[in-house]
From TrEMBL:
GO biological process, one term: establishment of competence for transformation
Name the record gives this protein: Uncharacterized protein
Source superkingdom: Bacteria
Organism per entry: Bacillus gobiensis
Amino acid sequence: MELRSAPPEFPSRFLLLRRTSSKIEVEFFLKERAEKLKSKNLFKKGDRMIIADDYSINLSTMLLKSTFSEYGELHTIVYELNQEVYVKKSPMTILEENILQLGTTYEGIIQATKYLLPGQKMLCVLFSALDRICFFNTTSILRHDNLLLAYSHIAKIAPSGKGSLLTFTNGKQLYVPVFHRILVNRRSHASYVADTFANNYRAIQNGQINPIFMENNDGNDYGDFIQ
């Protein structure tokens, strides 16, 4: 038995190659990941699952969740209001490609968010200010067990043991092993970022570009525009 290097997007500790006389068996150790994603009344795969090579983020997008193909490739299951889409790309790739289509970059979005939320970590990702589509993370966006949650589709966040029970706008629920107060704060930041940039766009369209300052709930002052 020997350990081999994993594909770039696949953590090496989850890939074990067992060499036999006739073949190489690949086993993926996802037990830890599965335990962290245990849920109550979670989404279930059904006849609405769609398989796609690409995906366009839209107003129905609620959640992006990593999954692995049988070959160890990092793919994504996207949960929309009324259907599920299996996308043959990683969540980060989907984000980056969709953001590029809007004329900016993922790095640029993060820099703009840092300007509004200085000193904050686990920053949310604003996709569309006009439509107020903004995602917040359950952990680091670089981790394979991270969930990208559209803040506008989270109807309720309730404490549940050492984690939280999320209720989505379509009534589905998901258990997340992250403390309630942490998710509430991250959702609040996502809402603030989306609202601020939406107001800024509207102010620019109306010719009102005089900056004012407003105080966020963490006590810091942030630049905004007069409406």
